[in-house]
Automatic annotation (TrEMBL):
Gene Ontology cellular component terms for the protein in this record: membrane
Alphabetized GO MF terms: metal ion binding; UDP-2,3-diacylglucosamine hydrolase activity
GO terms (BP aspect): lipid A biosynthetic process
Domain of life: Archaea
Compositional bias segments (type: Basic and acidic residues): 416-429
Keyword 4Fe-4S: no
Keywords for this protein: Cell inner membrane, Cell membrane, Manganese, Membrane, Metal-binding, Transmembrane, Transmembrane helix
InterPro entries according to UniProt: Calcineurin-like_PHP (IPR004843), LpxH-like (IPR043461), Metallo-depent_PP-like (IPR029052)
Region (Disordered) location: 416-441
Protein name (record): Calcineurin-like phosphoesterase
Domain Calcineurin-like phosphoesterase residue range list: 9-153
Gene3D superfamilies per UniProt: 3.60.21.10
């Protein structure tokens, strides 16, 4: 098939498969719809799956190519769709870090070819776009925690491998034990450092006994006010300042029983908060001293955070310098859709089809943050037009699962602060200069 005038549709980070509850693919219908649109097309199209199509790291009960056996048995409709659509358009698959094993066994090439999937067992590929080129790679090679130094080795186990086999896979096996099947969403928690506070959030809003939770909510809501009142009470005791207790009592008394209840609630909060502050002061100094000791020994120097841009700008510049024909550096891995115009060309991140969790901190008090779910099922279309090289995002529609997955308390505390899924605007790249010259449609 002639590649002149070809248009490319790029997706990545599907993470399909894994132990037990990780088998569930919540966007499977939308993925099938996306693929089906290319069946029987006369257009010159190539679909590029730019890494992490499958969650092979998340399988811990089978090894090697047996993982493909499980995938075929679990998702027969998906593989049959690949077979049908691949008769009309080229489907190219690059390994990511989660499915790096695709590069480790030659058998995968032939077995995926049976479904009309062209598996390229290399870290990157290029494709022509007019007189220029697109550079495709998953991007994990620029993440120190997921870099594969021995490419193609079945024994490659960077830090991210252990996190996913020990944490993510375990979550898949335990998820259905919760009050709601939420623990499997651990693979959608980014950056990874957010996992502890995410677990605290889900425990508080989902797993905690409702009676206990509703008893704690008023205390947590008024905590900031209670700190102020506790400090003022301490100043009153020390003779520094006199609290207007009678005026406060008279003011709240105007509201009858409700005012009295608020007064007693604040009084209890002040007492509890005062005790907490007394304990917190020595604990703060102990924590600070322990942290300094840990930093001195360098125990916690490794960060699990995936920087969505930092490492990729120099990587893109290096690609543009080494290959003057390259005008687009297309990657995934960070799960953050992005278009960035840099010297020499344009960076394009394809995002993820996994659920996105948007942190919403409490507006008042010290309530745990709410992680609001949404989907951005994006495909990046890259094509040559009369105006230049077009890069635009097309999204399969899927409503937020917030109604089913968030408790009433979580939904109440995020009213008016629901995330609005947005994707980068369409850009048109000047093939001569490599600059994005048209930021809007």
């Amino acid at each position: 098939m002639d590649e002149e005038g070809r248009e490319y549709y790029v997706i990545s980070d599907l993470h399909i498969g894994g132990d037990e509850q990780l088998e569930e693919v919540e966007f499977l219908d939308e993925l099938l719809e996306f693929l089906d649109r290319f069946e029987g097309t006369d257009d010159d199209v190539e679909i590029v799956i730019n890494g992490d199509a499958f969650g092979l790291w998340e399988f811990t009960t089978v090894e090697g190519t047996e993982k493909l056996d499980v995938l075929e048995e679990t998702y027969p409709e998906l593989f049959e769709t690949f077979r049908r659509v691949g008769e009309d358009v080229q489907i190219t698959l690059l390994p990511g870090n989660h499915d790096h094993e695709l590069a480790a066994y030659e058998e995968y090439v032939d077995r995926l070819a049976a479904y009309n999937i062209d598996l390229v067992q290399e870290p990157s590929i290029t494709r022509p776009i007019g007189d220029r080129e697109i550079h495709f790679e998953h991007g994990h090679q620029h993440d120190p925690n997921n870099r594969i130094d021995d490419w193609g080795s079945p024994h490659a186990t960077p830090l991210g491998y252990f996190y996913n086999t020990l944490v993510t896979s375990r979550a898949g096996r335990l998820s259905d034990r919760g009050r709601y099947n939420w623990l499997k969403d651990v693979q959608a928690v980014t950056p990874t450092e957010r996992m502890p506070i995410w677990l605290v959030s889900k425990y508080f809003y989902r797993e905690m006994n409702p009676v206990l939770r509703y008893a704690l909510v008023p205390f947590l809501l008024f905590f900031n006010i209670s700190i102020l009142l506790a400090l003022l009470a301490a100043a009153d005791i020390a003779g520094i300042w006199s609290m207007p207790v009678e005026r406060t009592t008279a003011f709240l008394g105007q509201f009858g029983t409700a005012g009295t209840a608020v007064w007693f609630l604040l009084a209890i909060n002040v007492v509890v908060t005062g005790v907490i502050l007394l304990v917190a002061i020595p604990l703060y100094f102990i924590r600070r001293d322990v942290r300094k000791t840990i930093e001195r020994f360098g125990v916690l120097e490794t960060s699990l955070t995936v920087d969505a841009e930092g490492p990729y700008q120099p990587a893109a510049r290096e690609v543009f310098e080494e290959n003057p024909d390259a005008v687009i550096y297309c990657y995934g891995h960070t799960h953050r859709p992005l278009v960035r115009d840099i010297e020499g060309g344009v960076m394009v991140n394809t995002g993820t089809w996994l659920k996105r969790l948007h942190r919403r901190d409490g507006a008042i008090g010290i309530l745990p943050p709410v992680f609001y779910p949404s989907y951005q099922l994006a495909a990046v279309r890259i094509a040559e037009t009369a105006d230049g090289i077009v890069v635009e995002y097309e999204a399969e529609r899927k409503p937020s699962p917030a109604t089913e997955e968030l408790t009433r308390t979580e939904r109440f505390f995020t009213v008016g602060r629901e995330p609005e899924p947005d994707l980068p605007e369409r850009v048109v790249i000047d093939p001569e200069t490599g600059e994005a010259t048209s930021p809007s449609a």
